[in-house]
Amino acid sequence: MKISEASFAGSSTRISEKPKQRFPEFAFIGRSNVGKSSLINMLCNKRKLAMTSGTPGKTRLVNHFLINGEWYLVDLPGYGYAKMSKTGRQKLEQVINNYINFSEEMHLLFVLIDSRHDIGKIDLDFLMQLGNRGIPFSIIFTKADKLGKNALAAQIERNRQALLEYWEELPPVFISSAETGEGKEEILDYIGSLLEEMKKEEK
Ligand code: GTP
Ligand code: MG
């Protein structure tokens, strides 16, 4: 799948404020600073579509981007930013939970994990919650350019094994880099195949 058109469609803190035009949504979540907004920009070939920052906690709202006039990429705030005030964190959690629990159009949630690190408790807890609530998700290991080829493969294998302690089988897993564009085709083709499936089901 190719993205020929990508534009900002609106920000919200609750689903009643979502863009009025409803289309299938593919959302990106993960720890603060893991690279959600950068990945969206990379997928869309636009450097400044979603706002990014070296300081965690940049994205505070749910941001919808309309793609090819027929589906949305959704940029969510990050979870687990330790330096934020308790109230600030609770507010973000509310924004995130309201979206992932109640957005009827959300077709799939991509959970991003930094490919350099071991999966932490905070990620595992988040993934467990998704499992318990029956929310469909897929995993993307980000910032692949920051590790050498062998170290990357070893770290990803460690993380797969860590996940396999909790799940019998894993959902599709992708590797990405906003710097090199790695993973772009695979992620977009996967979204494309899910959209095709939806169209067939509608017929
Ligand atoms: P919040 O909105 O704060 O939750 O963060 P985010 O997950 O949207 O992260 P963002 O895209 O803002 O990126 C955070 C930092 O990581 C920025 O300094 C990016 O330039 C950097 N970054 C993101 N993706 C990559 C990547 O694939 N490779 C490298 N080298 N740096 C990246
Ligand atoms: Mg962001």
Tell me about this structure.
The structure is a single chain. This protein is of the alpha/beta class. The protein has a single domain (6-202), classed as Rossmann fold (3-Layer(aba) Sandwich), CATH 3.40.50.300. Helix content is 36%, strand content 21%. It contains five helices and seven strands. It has a seven-stranded mixed β-sheet with strand order 1-3-4-2-5-6-7, with helices on both faces. Strand 3 and strand 4 (71-75) form a beta hairpin. The radius of gyration is 16 Å and the shape is globular. The model has no long low-confidence stretch (mean pLDDT 94). It binds guanosine-5'-triphosphate and magnesium ion (MG). The site of magnesium ion has 5 residues, from helix 1.
Pick out its properties.
alpha/beta; binds guanosine-5'-triphosphate; binds magnesium ion; 7 strands; 203 residues; 5 helices; Rossmann fold
How is the topology of this model organized?
Blueprint: E1 6-12, E2 25-30, H1 36-44, E3 62-67, E4 71-75, H2 86-102, E5 106-114, H3 121-133, E6 137-142, H4 149-164, E7 173-175, H5 184-202
Would you kindly provide a brief summary of this structure?
By secondary structure, the chain is of the alpha/beta class.
Overall pLDDT: 94
Number of E strands: 7
Principal-axes geometry comes out as globular
Q: Radius of gyration, rounded?
A: 16 Å
| Fraction in beta strands | 15-25%
Bound molecules: guanosine-5'-triphosphate, magnesium ion
| Separation, N- and C-terminal Cα atoms | 21 Å
CATH superfamily: P-loop containing nucleotide triphosphate hydrolases
CATH class: Alpha Beta
Q: Biggest β-sheet, characterized?
A: 7 strands, mixed
Which sequence of strands runs across the widest sheet? 1-3-4-2-5-6-7
CATH topology tier name: Rossmann fold
